[in-house]
UniProtKB/TrEMBL annotation, chains A, B:
Enzyme class: transferase
Keyword annotations from UniProtKB, A to Z: Aminotransferase, Neurotransmitter degradation, Pyridoxal phosphate, Transferase
Cofactor(s) it depends on: pyridoxal 5'-phosphate
Gene source species: Cyprinus carpio (Common carp)
Name by which UniProt lists this protein: 4-aminobutyrate aminotransferase, mitochondrial
Reaction catalysed by this enzyme: (S)-3-amino-2-methylpropanoate + 2-oxoglutarate = 2-methyl-3-oxopropanoate + L-glutamate; 4-aminobutanoate + 2-oxoglutarate = succinate semialdehyde + L-glutamate
One biological process term in Gene Ontology: gamma-aminobutyric acid catabolic process
Similarity comment text for this entry: Belongs to the class-III pyridoxal-phosphate-dependent aminotransferase family.
GO cellular component, one term: mitochondrion
Pfam family membership, one: Aminotran_3
Length: 494, 494
């Protein structure tokens, strides 16, 4: 895990406690298509947003809507709202905008006449793929395939990706159990009425604090917030503790290793217990960093040992990279930080990849057609955009940008929590996938609203965490803008 | 149900048994953007498709792929493949292409510079909707809202629509049970670990032969084919028999009414039984016509009584219009044929609507934000296309076109089954949502392959059924092309 940021150097940054950050890169020219700073005209949500909220409230629950956006006017890292407020956006549509708003390369995809038909005629990919489909997969998703994986299945969103990844693991597991023989007549008959053995009592092991989506299968592995799960029927599947580490990780190596050992022991106990209950664990699903659950990290050693436990007990190992994938940690996949040759059996993705889907090892390929299937199975127009996003990532060395900006951001967060120890703690991160805790949820929410009114739009997660999920084009220049605003807000809080 | 086609008139059609259909509309000019007929160069799949199949087979299971398509060259009702074969397409990407390939109106959406940003910046609709989002909903989805419904939630696909519709019904049901009080601490705690009462043992009643999607929640209500369900864990939810009617419906009114009464009785028994089991039925889900399960119809009287049973037992009534919605039955929603003022509590859609989603009554609106939520919650670029599709449907009176073409198609199918009674039977349909059974699955498959090689691409469903799912721009001219080819194939089969 690349958390070996030059943390000591924060002491030498050229600003006094409480003063504003001085941008070391202010002279650097900003990409021509972007604005240079936030610009606020009203409190957020402004009057236009409030009127639209009222209108939309007649149609949908709008309790989660922050404000309405003017996407035409948004550029790069800056999100413009309908009241003309321009904010530095470090939440990026719940971490799903890879290279900023209205990137010229993506605008070009739209104006290329060769692409029109891909948008206008959405195919049923599982039965009638377009001519260029294998080529587009090779040039986009397969060019970034995780270690050991040559097969990929696209899906429309993160939840469908995880649902189908789970199905792939169940099918693989039962085929193993059957010795790859055909299913019995009894299995075929019972599956039609939801009964065992056709619909077997298999389970997926997940972790407390995990988030893997909100459809019923995914939701049975999601344990981040009660509001997601309340009143929805679920499966009796095992839930292991996720390590609760102390930060900075380098300062608590021994304590954290103990905590991780405790959790791994519990994982093995649960696998055995659920096998005895007649609900064997077909797969283990885990995020490289628990995001929605509060930005919880674990060490490469933890993941390596967990991967071995999965192998030992014959469970598939599914790494959910829906939020960590796409370059935000400084490597393309979060699990690359573990340094394993054989890190996973299944890797699912969505968000920054613009299309959902999952990679899997050859061994897990479905044995028959129509077992993993739906009408659309993804959307080739999203693959077009993804190809271009990958070109930009390569051309502009965005993984290096993320690593550099991430170091500056984490360093700045360390400084802030030293300055405001009664307000902030537990700064942590990998690449720009950073977070910091407030002393309580009310303070966290208040900081976020004040920052927003000063032109900084951040996300929250867990109970009292602020999460940073900027686009990959978030430069050090933007880091300093962020830190300046946050510093101003905290200074007022004092 | 509008099955009162002038069936007797088929006897007077001006062609002799065994001869080719004479197009009565041959003089009518074909829309300028469309081809005028199929044109075949190779057997299907041709050599280029076969080479691409090999390539894609390295990446995915391609067992369900028919052939590869040249979508650029496809027009209207004609799908062109990579080997230059041009087929009359009456399956339309599993019933998901509303107004044919490359419709000029949809091409225009793409070339309108005002729309570019909607494609390039996919928002997280639940937190940061675009300025025009309420307007676009009003002009598209709300302009076609089912009777009694003013609220709609978009989703990315049919499965996510049904999953979230189920969740909406569970939340509504538990809120009723709690008397709209806040959940207890025990409920909040237990839901985090998948246990009752927080994750209650509620159920959804579905029907044998139903298809509602393939994610784990949906799959527990899907009972059309074993290959969809085998090896996937499921819920112990009640499954009622769907009426097995005899066709033509008008000739078996008494027998069919008896069969429907039997099924309705079973529905009530199951609701009582599952309540006693401690797994009360929160909702009943049903398709207006079971599609994937074999194009099974039921009468308006059946649906009316079922709706009353749902009300009597306090279950929500969810009509799944994913395949029947969008005009294909001659009305915009399949359930409009029932003639009820109060047909449903929830109506889900996808496919021809281009975006997934569901409408629901005010009473079912989620009481809190983030209960029905995900990152994207649909895709506004699909709403842009939908607005234009609705304009075309209105401007070109496509519901009337569907009704007219549907009558001609069903009439032709009646004629064919009279001509080939040893091969075909049970012709049935509503609008162009038509089907006919072959004597067995091998014959069905053989007819479909032979027809494809003559330029007619059809779909299958159930055990031995051919299903017709043309686009809404399928005119009588195309009906006669279809019947001519089918007639030729059957004549050879004789």
């Amino acid at each position: 895990m690349e958390l070996n940021v030059e943390r000591d150097s924060y002491l030498f940054i050229n600003f006094a406690l409480g003063s504003r950050y001085v941008s070391k890169t202010a002279t650097k020219s900003v990409s021509e298509f972007e604005y240079d700073a936030p610009s606020m005209k009203t409190a957020v949500p402004g009057p236009k947003s409030q009127e639209l909220l009222r209108q939309l409230g007649e149609i949908q629950n709008v309790g989660a809507v922050h404000f309405f956006c003017n996407y035409e006017e948004s550029r790069g890292n800056y999100l413009v709202d309908v009241d003309g407020n321009r904010m530095l956006d470090v939440y990026t549509q719940i971490s799903s905008i890879p290279i900023g708003y209205n990137h010229p390369a993506l605008m070009k995809v739209m104006t290329n006449p060769n692409n029109v038909s891909t948008f206008v005629n959405r195919p049923a990919l599982g039965i009638l793929p377009p001519e260029n489909f294998p080529d587009k997969l090779i040039e986009s998703l397969l060019s970034i395939a995780p270690s050991g994986m040559r097969r990929v299945q696209t899906m429309a969103c993160g939840s469908c990706s995880n649902e189908n990844a789970f199905k792939t693991m169940f099918i693989w597991y039962r085929n193993k159990e059957r010795g790859y023989a055909n299913p019995s007549e009894h299995e075929v008959d019972t599956c039609m009425i939801n009964q065992s053995p056709g619909c077997p009592d298999l389970s997926i092991l997940s972790f407390m604090g995990a988030f893997h989506g909100r459809t019923l299968g995914c939701l049975a592995t999601t344990h981040s917030k009660a509001i997601h799960k309340l009143d929805i029927p679920s499966f009796d599947w095992p839930i292991a503790p996720f390590p609760k580490l102390q930060y900075p990780l380098e300062e608590f190596v021994r304590e954290n290793a103990q905590e991780e050992a405790r959790c791994l022991e519990e994982v093995e106990d649960l696998i055995v217990k659920w096998r005895q209950k007649g609900k064997p664990v077909a797969g283990i699903v885990i995020e490289p960093i628990q995001a929605e659950g509060g930005d919880n990290h674990a060490s490469p050693d933890f993941f390596s040992k967990l991967r071995n436990i999965a192998r030992k007990h014959g469970c598939a190992f599914h790494v959910d990279e829906v939020q960590t994938g796409g370059g935000t940690t400084g490597k393309f996949w979060g699990h690359e930080h573990w340094g394993l040759d054989d890190p996973a059996d299944v890797v699912s993705f969505s968000k920054k990849l613009l299309t959902g889907g999952y990679y899997h090892r050859d061994e897990l390929k479905p044995d028959k057609p129509y077992r993993i299937f739906n009408t659309w199975m993804g959307d080739p127009s999203k693959n077009l955009f993804l190809s271009e996003v990958l070109n930009v990532i390569r051309r502009e060395n965005l993984l290096e940008v993320v690593t550099r900006s991430g170091k500056a951001l984490l360093q700045g967060l360390y400084t802030l929590q030293t300055q405001y120890p009664h307000i902030l703690s537990r700064a942590r991160g990998q690449g720009t996938f950073c977070a910091i805790d407030a002393c309580n949820d009310a303070t966290r929410d208040s900081i976020m609203i004040k920052a927003r009114n000063k032109g900084l739009f951040m996300g929250s997660c867990g109970e009292k965490t602020i999460r940073f999920r900027p686009a990959l084009v978030f430069k050090e220049y933007h880091v300093h803008q962020l830190l300046n605003i946050l510093n101003d807000v905290l200074a007022e809080h004092k």
